[in-house]
Isocitrate/isopropylmalate dehydrogenase family protein (Amedibacillus dolichus), 332 residues
Amino acid sequence: MKKTITVFKGDGIGPEITDAVLAILQAAQAPLAYEVYSVGIPLYEQCGELISEEAFASFERNKVLLKSPITTPIGSGFRSINVLLRKKYDLYANVRPAKSNPAIATPFPDVDIVTFRENTEDLYVGVEEQIDADTVHATKIITRKASERIIEAAFRYAADNQRKRVTCVHKANILKMSDGLFLSIFHDIAKRYPTIESDDRIVDNMCMQLVQYPQRYDVLVMPNLYGDILSDLTSGLIGGLGLMPSANLGSEYAMFEAVHGSAPDIAGKHIANPTALLWSACMMLDHLGEQTVAARIRKAVDQVLADKKALTPDLGGSATTQQYTQAVIEAL
Ligand code: NAD
């Protein structure tokens, strides 16, 4: 039976890469039906909303969202639509896999690191207070509930995906109470997964280790701020944000999107690379229990990237989005 998912087409390169991904999903015979919504700047200019009520309602019905990038309007009230979606649907786990690909030359081959970033608290609660003209306080919040669910998610992922090790990243040597709580919960949960190795690193040391020996690391779990920074670091290890997929998971809802933005500089030029959104769609298929289809698509993409004949300009080629998409479909 087909599972219905919601698709937000976004703006900038969003519509181009969404069309490419939907064509590939169709060619791969993914057992999916789609409710597709145009969201983003054109809608905002019409009615002052980036996402319509119907689009939100569709996500609430289907619980699974494939989202392409949305431009943050300059001068608007909210910080980002992503922050809004994460809060509204309690998408507490931000999962970013960083895997080296032979088509992209970097000084770091064989990187295969999955970062689990807590998505709802830490310094991102946005509570800041002006104490006097020269002093500002920011509040860092770490709770047992939020820490348990992200750490549990990381170990569960490791167990389900034949991963060997989970590393907790923290600064508990200085932030003894807040990060200390996160670390102690990590050690408690680790005992429930005796077949998975567990260890921890202080965040500054972790940064050095990741650029010296990234191959030594497997699954990482950490509070929000360290996750924000380290997941960009790991994407740099594999050649940049352009190839990074992500999942934002909650207990009820799941949203899958590329890490990159709407790339207004190349929008409409038909040269956008849809790979990060496509890999996000593969994470979505895994989430829906369609691992076989996801594996077929990943294999086809690997083949096209390795062939180097149909690469988009960001990867040093001259193919259009359409030519790249066609090459993946042929490889399938
Ligand atoms: P960006 O990621 O859109 O672009 C940075 C650079 O990478 C640009 O040169 C762009 O051409 C290139 N690039 C990005 N994706 C590419 C792709 N798939 N193929 C080829 N080249 C690609 O970052 P930005 O310019 O800082 O942001 C543009 C807008 O996107 C902003 O309004 C920002 O707020 C928004 N944004 C949205 C999301 C999201 O919806 N998830 C994430 C990040 C940024």
